[in-house]
Known about the structure:
By secondary structure, the chain is mainly β. About 10% of the residues lie in helices and about 50% in strands. It has one helix at about 5-15, and strands at about 20-30, 40-50, 55-60, 65-70, 85-95, 100-105, 110, 115-125, 125-135. Strands 3, 4, 5, 6 and 7 form a 5-stranded antiparallel beta sheet that branches. The chain has a 4-stranded antiparallel beta sheet with strand order 2-1-9-8, with no helix packed on it. The protein is elongated. The two termini are about 30 Å apart.
Amino acid sequence: MTNTMKILFFLLFTQAVSAKLYLNVSILVKKGVNLGITLASELQSVEEIRPEVPVIIKMKNGVIIEIQASFENIKSSSEHYGPSENILVIGKIINEKGEIIRDFSKEKILIPLNEQHLISQEKDNQKIELRIQPEIR
């Protein structure tokens, strides 16, 4: 095999085995929850996650979700190879007034790959449900 063929094969092989972490994010905002009238708005998004880079999702109604995710750090053992199956998720829910209504940066939210996790917050007749499902593609 020539050197050019080896380099081409190496480049194609490294691209084929790379996988990326994605978060399926669903945001449901319900207003007027305690008033008997409910106005709901929903946003669904699939976000590619990069190490230590927050993802910011803005809804038309002014709600902002800031999320950061990474693989859980685990100690290496002879029985476990590669990254963890659990994803550590941190972030904030910010309402239309710019107030942080939920800060889950200090909470340790671990979500197994391909499983959905619900984060719910209710304040001032407004309920926000944030569903997160990590996956590798």
